[in-house]
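Bit of a strange request maybe. I'm writing a small parser for structure token strings and I need a real example to test against, not something I typed by hand. Could someone generate the tokens for this chain?
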Amino acid sequence: MIAFVSLITVFAIAWFWLDTAGARDSARAGARRLCTELGVQFLDQTVALARTRLCRDDQGRLRWERLFRFEFSESGTERYPGRITIVGRRPTWMVLDGARIGHVLAEGDRLT
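Reply from user aminoacidic:
Good idea to test on real output. This should exercise your parser:
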């Protein structure tokens, strides 16, 4: 019985790790696309997981919501923070904080 519970636990941890890796790929692609559309540099070509929690999606299904942070630059000399939220594997919310960018995409704007 203990071996069975241990095996299920290992599979659950492996599934969660792989699911987070897929969400990270979606976050990276979304952040890169947004930076390209706004004409800024997506620095380091990476995102970092900041928070994970359970939430309900638009259809009311229970999903993992993950918040990722990244950095971008307007000219290459300064660094500004950005955030992207992924529900399941779908980007649902992005914010770029910066001198010129802050008014282009305000906090709370949803992606279409």
